[in-house]
Task: structure prediction
Amino acid sequence: MANPKKLSGAERKTAIVRAVRHLFAMKGFAGTTTRELADAAGVSEALLYRHFPTKEDLYVAIHQSLIEERNPQQLKQLTALEPSTTTLVLLVHFLVVILARDASDPGEGSIPMRLILRSLTEDGEFSQIIGRQLTCDWAAKVEECLHAAAKAGEAIEQRVPFNVGCQFAFHLASMVMMQFLPGIPMAAYLDPKSELVGKIVWFALRGMGLHEDAIERYYKPETLMVLGL
Result:
């Protein structure tokens, strides 16, 4: 094997992550050998595991790289807003739009979903990492917003606690969009994807406890599309 190009430690780690993540998406962790990973990255196995000693280290790095390529600044801006019904609507819409874009991308964009599906058929570790990250960032803010909406008389926490409703919303949106990964959806959705996004957001908001009149008041998908959301 030719000597790898001299890169800094950070550059080498980034190069390895970019080179191997498609292997995990296609073959899963158990189905991908160390030799295949090293060959894809153009490094020795020793160098590969010098940078990533454990499977979780590599999974975390892959997940982080995918987040950084999705305009994380937009999510940071949304989570920095004051907890409110408006912020809740923006966060749920943003999540569904991102998932819809991922599912529509036949290349790199669909890797997160494919990694989750592979992980669920194996040890589930990558999915658990995604879940922990979701809880720390998006879901935590959504739960704050739900409590703010409840104080404003625009939501109610009934049989489904707000923290559980956040998880349900993510799982619902993810599984609907995963139907589009093969190109021809498994489910016979008759709506264009843009309209389907709006219906998923509406269903999720209502299921989380937001009143219908509040959804009507705050959720204007046409306006959000103009704003690039």
